[in-house]
Every structure is written in structure tokens, then in C-alpha cells.
Amino acid sequence: MNWPPAELRTPRLLLRKPLPSDAEAVFARLSGETQVTRYLGWAPHAELRQTRQLISLDLLRWDRGAGWTWLIEEDGSVIGLLQLTRIEPHLLRLGCMLTPTHWGRGLMSDALRALLATAFTQPSLQRIEALCDVDNLASARMLEKASLRQEGRLACHTLHPNISSRPRDMLLYAITRSDNGDPPLFTSEDESFQTRRALGRPQPRAHS
Q: pLDDT tens digits, residue range 12-29?
């Protein structure tokens, strides 16, 4: 498959390159939503023009090969987005947003698995990583369901102005080309082992 794909499909979802005309839907469901932007490095958009500017920047980065954003659609409606940013020739950084009405259905991990499989068709790509606020347990679980592994905790790393004026601790997740050949799968009924360990919480006991 040629990189980057303008469209990707899963049984439930369509991932596609954004268009300028998507600004109103993105503003209403994602960039202007306080719940969605809580753990991001910028405040929710107060005006539609801010989202229009964001999409214009995303398209410029797409054309320059610096990064790529895909809107996620279910039944023809925009419900989220996935983004990969080029950090180094061998390394991409992952970002995502999902509208609250669609949380808890496994949609983001479904979309992410499809994108990861496609991204690793690039011969130069060796690693995709994601940073997750230490309190954002839902995102941590989603990343683990998509087979990213937690590699550590980064102290005082990222400003999240919607939470605090001080830099926040972040969890570092990643998947590598070798992982992608036989990716580990993490499942749990509650918080995963890795998330509990990073937060210093008691681990569930094994039963023989």
C-alpha cells in the first residue's frame, strides 16, 4: 500500500484524510469539546476559525510529509481522529481524539490497529510511540489493547493547561517493527497490569 493512504477501512469505521469542509464537525465533536481536550496540550477551541486553522495546518503537514491526520467516521459521521507525526525518519508519534458519545466501544483501538498495520509497511519505520497523561487511564488501556507496550513514566514532561499550570507526568507507550510481527496483547477486566504498576497500585494476584 502506498504511504500515506488517503483512506483506510475497518469493518466498522472509515479513516480518511480531512477536508476544509470538515471544520464544523470537528469543532462540534472534538476540538471544541472540553472532555475531549482535557488531556491535550491546548485549550478547547472557542471559535470555529481555530479549527479551520488546525485543519489547514494538518493538510500542510500532510503535503510536506511531516505528519498525517485521519478523521474517523462511523456511519458517515465524524467521531474522532488519529494522527501520526514524523519525529525522525524511523520514528512516528501518535495522537488521537474521540467524541465522548462513542467512548467505551473499542472504536479507537479498532482504528489504531488498522493504522499501525499500514504504517509498518514503510520500510524505514521502526517505532511508533505515544505519550499518555498519567491520570488518563482510558487512553492507557486503549493503547495497550492496540498492542503498544508501556516503557516508562516521564516526570514533569508535558504541559496540559486544561488540568494544571505545571508540567504533567506522562506514560510512554511504543510499538516497534519487531513487536508488530508478533505484537503482545494485553487484556484485563479493569486496569491493566502495566497501568497499575506505573501508578504504584496493587497488582492482582495470580490464581493457580
A: 999 999 999 999 999 999
CA 183 to each of CA 31, 54, 145, 147: distance values in angstroms, whole numbers, following the listed order: 32, 33, 10, 6
The span from the CA of 57 to the CA of 61, in Å, is: 6
* Strand ranges in the chain using DSSP code E only, listed in sequence order: 7-9, 14-16, 67-74, 77-88, 91-98, 127-133, 149-158, 168-176
Q: Which three cell numbers stand for residue 158?
A: 508535558
pTM (2 decimals)? 0.84
Specify the residue for cell string 486503549: 142
Question: ω before 4 within 30° of 0 (cis)?
Answer: yes
Separation of alpha carbons 59 and 168, rounded Å:
29
**Interior angle at CA 196, CA 192 and CA 200, nearest 5:** 170
The DSSP-derived string for 101-121 is: GGTTSSHHHHHHHHHHHHHTT
Q: How far apart are CA 54 and CA 40, in angstroms?
A: 14
Contact of 72 with 13, CB cutoff 8 Å:
yes
Helix/strand/coil for 186: coil
Cell of 82: 488519529
Whether the Cβ atoms of residue 18 and residue 55 lie closer than 8 Å to each other: yes
Cα torsion 108, 72, 96, 8: sign: positive
One-letter amino acid identity for 166? R
How many other CB atoms sit within 10 Å of the CB of residue 123? 8
**pLDDT, tens only, 146-156:** 999 999 999 99
